[in-house]
Amino acid sequence: GIQVEQSPPDLILQEGANSTLRCNFSDSVNNLQWFHQNPWGQLINLFYIPSGTKQNGRLSATTVATERYSLLYISSSQTTDSGVYFCAVPYYGGSQGNLIFGKGTKLSVKP
Amino acid sequence: ETGVTQSPTHLIKTRGQQVTLRCSSQSGHNTVSWYQQALGQGPQFIFQYYREEENGRGNFPPRFSGLQFPNYSSELNVNALELDDSALYLCASSLAIEQFFGPGTRLTVL
């Protein structure tokens, strides 16, 4: 089945710093989602981005489907950005694809 | 807020017992997927329900079963609980491709 790898596994930043999180996947996909999991376990949708670039405030994401990777950029990080960031792709290419998650990047932003 | 709700929030059971977890999907969403997330891991797909029918299953034993109701809400049932079933259980609802998650139920098996 499809493999999803995220890097780095852990990241510690000072408040105000920028960061780039990477997600590699082993097969072509028609769907990719980025999530932020807060300390209470809630998975918050950040981006649905099968290809191209999207921006939402201080966050932006780029997916290059032909090269099988996606990047999540966080600028001017804040302590509230702390948590685990997951990317996920469908188990199969159908419209109701079940998501395969990477192991996540744990981000800690220090004041 | 995603509009997806789950109950209960926390649950403690003993080995061998049975448990039922519940999920209400976002209004208008006809598909519910369930995931298990062990500590320090990414969520793992259990199964999906689409219009009351199972529509795909991950690598979980038959003691994990589910239902979807006409209003598209869903239940996850786990029989003969094992210690390794301790995890955060997440449900997600969707209408098309993008999935939206509930807050999860944290199950502890003693």
Question: Helices, strands, pairings?
Answer:
The complex is a heterodimer of chains A (111) and B (110).
Chain A: E1 4-7, E2 10-14, E3 19-25, E4 33-37, E5 43-48, E6 52-56, E7 59-64, E8 69-74, E9 83-90, E10 99-101, E11 105-110
Parallel strand pairs in A: 2-11
Antiparallel strand pairs in A: 1-3, 3-8, 4-5, 4-9, 6-7, 7-8, 9-10, 9-11
Chain B: E1 5-7, E2 10-13, E3 19-24, E4 31-37, E5 44-50, E6 53-57, E7 64-68, E8 74-78, E9 87-94, E10 100-101, E11 105-109
Parallel strand pairs in B: 2-11
Antiparallel strand pairs in B: 1-3, 3-8, 4-5, 4-9, 5-6, 7-8, 9-10, 9-11
Characterise the protein shown here.
The complex is a heterodimer of chains A (111) and B (110). Chain A has 111 residues and is mainly β. In chain A, 0% of the residues lie in helices and 55% in strands. Chain A is built from no helices and eleven strands. In chain A, strands 2, 4, 5, 9, 10 and 11 form a six-stranded mixed beta sheet that branches. Chain A has a five-stranded antiparallel beta sheet with strand order 1-3-8-7-6, with no helix packed on it. Chain A starts with a strand and ends with a strand. With 110 residues, chain B is mainly beta. Chain B is 0% helix and 52% strand. Chain B is built from no helices and eleven strands. In chain B, strands 2, 4, 5, 6, 9, 10 and 11 form a seven-stranded mixed beta sheet that branches. In chain B, strands 1-3-8-7 form a four-stranded antiparallel beta sheet, with no helix packed on it. Chain B starts with a strand and ends with a strand.
